[in-house]
Amino acid sequence: MTLHLNLFLHDTGHHEASWRLPESEPLAHIDIAYHQRIARIAEEARFDSVFLADSPVLWGKPSRRPSGKIEPTILLTAIAAVTTRIGLIATASTTYNEPFNLARRFSSLDHVSGGRAGWNIVTTAGDDAAQNFGLDAQPAHLTRYDRAAEFVEVSKKLWDSWDDDAIIADKTQGVHARDDRVHTIGHVGPHFKVRGPLNVPRSPQGYPLLVQAGSSEDGRDFAARHAEAVFTAQQTLQDAIAFYRDVKRRAIEFGRDPNEVKILPGLVPVIGSTEEEAHALDAELERLIVPEHAARQLATLLRVDHLELDEELPADLPEEAAIEGAKSRYTLIVELGRRERLTVRQLIGRLGGGRGHKTFAGTALQVADTIEEWHRAGAADGFNIMPAVLPSGLERFADEVLPILRQRGLFRTEYTGRTLREHYGLPRPANQFALPV
Amino acid sequence: MTLHLNLFLHDTGHHEASWRLPESEPLAHIDIAYHQRIARIAEEARFDSVFLADSPVLWGKPSRRPSGKIEPTILLTAIAAVTTRIGLIATASTTYNEPFNLARRFSSLDHVSGGRAGWNIVTTAGDDAAQNFGLDAQPAHLTRYDRAAEFVEVSKKLWDSWDDDAIIADKTQGVHARDDRVHTIGHVGPHFKVRGPLNVPRSPQGYPLLVQAGSSEDGRDFAARHAEAVFTAQQTLQDAIAFYRDVKRRAIEFGRDPNEVKILPGLVPVIGSTEEEAHALDAELERLIVPEHAARQLATLLRVDHLELDEELPADLPEEAAIEGAKSRYTLIVELGRRERLTVRQLIGRLGGGRGHKTFAGTALQVADTIEEWHRAGAADGFNIMPAVLPSGLERFADEVLPILRQRGLFRTEYTGRTLREHYGLPRPANQFALPV
């Protein structure tokens, strides 16, 4: 029984006000050396992987916090060059890319990193992203998921278009690869027509680890069908257990081994030497949020014109079914506000730390206990660790929480594999087109 | 008067049979450490830049030579991580990408490398590439160039969508960037509708060095209008002078400073201690070509069913105007064959070395003399160096030819700038949207 830990990279930290702390580097988000340093800390701590969220649009107002990001496959390649073991998971959109280009980029990242690439598959919600690609509004939720499913199918065909034994490099005969082991794919479907083969030989992992992070109905089905790791935002242990069981059950229904779908809820640890110290840091961060900015952003997410800071959420919010995009995040926020009867100001404080992910402020021992509790209760195969402040929150987690988890036999002391799939205990996929040897 | 030198990376070398030499690494094309090693040699030799050709399709038969390539922006990012000064030029297609995604990738490469990114803009000829993107056949030559022009226009708007002084990172006031210095672009044109802003702040160079390599009529116009460096294949000094004058003249007609369009013909040096040794190496490489494979590839390029190895080119080949894609390369090959009355076998030998670029076999002194002659005659602002065999051909060029050029004051002994634009003596572009300070 070993936990899997992913570090969710997010410039100066996941708390939206983290950049205002004296310790934070104001240009961290575009500083490659900074990202390389953090990834090395995570590798030294034996994390399974680092991960970057992404969307092809500028998020939020540039005044509010560090905005704009280095494109993830580029940033992770720069990290690959200074690390040797840690996995590298990049988010990329199936709605605003072409399968040939994206499959090639992930295959390239897998080659460059020696088998450490992962792809967080997203369909990209929002009209603003659509407007960067010639559209007026986002395609409907279902259309996006439909395209995503075919996108993954095409990508797998492209990744399999070279047999693993295609290259023989016979200098004497002058034959570099066997032509009959490199296949056109001739894919024709409702969304894509792609001839192939891919212009990169099959990569060390066969293809990147497939990750998914949407928790709507369609998102869960997609995860159960295609994903090998699932990132999810869960506020309570009860909800997390229900989600875990639901996705594993769906995976079985799709004929998959449920152990090959690893579920990692997000966790925002705020660690202090004492509980009081942890809560003080949390309060300090909350104090640094500009509430008017945050309320405006929350109003956009909830599709209302305006929110009163010192009142609870309005009663007449739309149902999830009426929401196109970021469905599960919408429901989570509305339920959190109503369950705990939070004012908008309080809700912003809670969301400022983790944008819907579970924030836990306490001592290292308390954080370790929570992790163990969730894991033993069947809520998590591992965690998506989202330090409120980087790099200090990561260092503290690595120095204080991980030794406790190791003592309890819950986390590795050394890497045993070389590839990202090996870290997650997942097999290298067979090639669907491979000829007999 | 200083020459600019670009190293054209091409796995084991530009000669198509180079991989068959005992010294060559058979998996060089997918080996990142190999590419990093070569780039370090080029940086040690103070080359302006390294460059990767590319197309989103598998070129040629995998049996013939190392096939498939790491995607160039990824490969150059891995090189950026282990170098500090040398420029990094990636080829990318305007026909099979979206401006938002590609502009972001090049901005990211420029950030990651500290201002060393260049983009070789190509429109991608060939039906086989089109068939990887849902089309049956390539768009017409003119349509591709029309889209390319608008693609560059949109990209420049996106690169300029953040003012250089947008980020203030004021921790006290909680203002990271000034919202009025980050602009939507609202581009609407025949090919693209893009809202913006880009989701990356403006990069060290403002935007990547813009490079172009097509020498057809449309290609020359495009180069004269947009390119800051031009790679070209020229077989004779006379043709090279004519091309040089023509492009500079066109640049002036478009209102540009002709010194801001650097012209670099390709040169394939095959260096020996004596002329005899150089010709022996050349002959050894020619002997390793499998002529039947090469003839089949040449026939495809020339749009004929079959070519007889020991006869000259057929008399009834189509005119350039009837060719859609790779127009200038087509004409160059046909003219070379006819001018020197080569058999197909001889022509293959000549092309095997440089695929239409000038091959020069001789001593280091003779190579240096040729470079100086072309430069002084007004045929070249620099050269695109394409060693027949890598890394040995590069090492020999660096160790034997460069000292002669330095002695003559024709090439730098040390970098004076930090960015790719600075190496090429080009200004950092102003921002078209910038507000007054």
UniProtKB/TrEMBL annotation, chains A, B:
InterPro entries (UniProt xref): Diverse_substr_monoxygenases (IPR051260), Luciferase-like_dom (IPR011251), Luciferase-like_sf (IPR036661), NTA_MOA (IPR016215)
Pfam families per the UniProt record, alphabetical: Bac_luciferase (PF00296)
Superkingdom per UniProt: Bacteria
Gene Ontology molecular function: any one: monooxygenase activity
Residue ranges annotated for the Luciferase-like domain, each copy included: 24-379
Record's keyword terms, sorted: Flavoprotein, FMN, Monooxygenase, Oxidoreductase
Binding site for FMN: 54, 91, 141, 145, 215-216
Keyword Flavoprotein listed: yes
Signal peptide as annotated in the record: none
Family stated for the protein in its record: Belongs to the NtaA/SnaA/DszA monooxygenase family.
Protein name, UniProt field: FMN-dependent oxidoreductase, nitrilotriacetate monooxygenase family
